[in-house]
Design goal:
about 200 residues; 20 strands
Length: about 200
Amino acid sequence: GSSADSLFVVSKISSISPNYGKAGDTVILKGASFTGASAVKLDGVNVQSYAVLSDDSIRAVISTSNTTGKMTVTTIAGTGTSTDSFYVSPTITSITPSSGIVGSSFVIKGTKFKVLTSVKLDGVNVSSYSLSGDTSITAVVSSANTTGRVTVSNPRTNVTSTDSFYVKPNITSISPNYGLVGSSVTITGTKFTGAT
């Protein structure tokens, strides 16, 4: 005998193109069994909008609420999850304070910091950094850092600050710490290049 029931196949996402971008960008999902899709999500949150172009293609628009993660397509058969992640571009809104000495900390505020690979100052890695949620990074100035803009990167994309962070000179010792007018002293410290 024959069955009146239909066989539903869970969606399969084989590619995301491009696999990085920002809110408002359009991405194309390729795969299979997309017909009748009832939801398209990125990292568990609905995309801004989507259109099923064919059984093997969906056009989706990234929303301001989306963060880096896997993409999913839900149909009556269940939910299919991408193997690869889509990376949402970070943004930088502020750097405080705007200057400091080697070893000092500064805070980078922005969005989409969830998956970072590096934090750089004037193109050189900071000494260390730590994340506080998706919107704040605390970074420590390294001895190799010089005054410049801050760049935050994830595996696929990056953003560079509009404003610069200024690495200030720091005096650690003066030797000798006494003398007559006209006598020489040696000042030891960091970041004296360009002193006037």
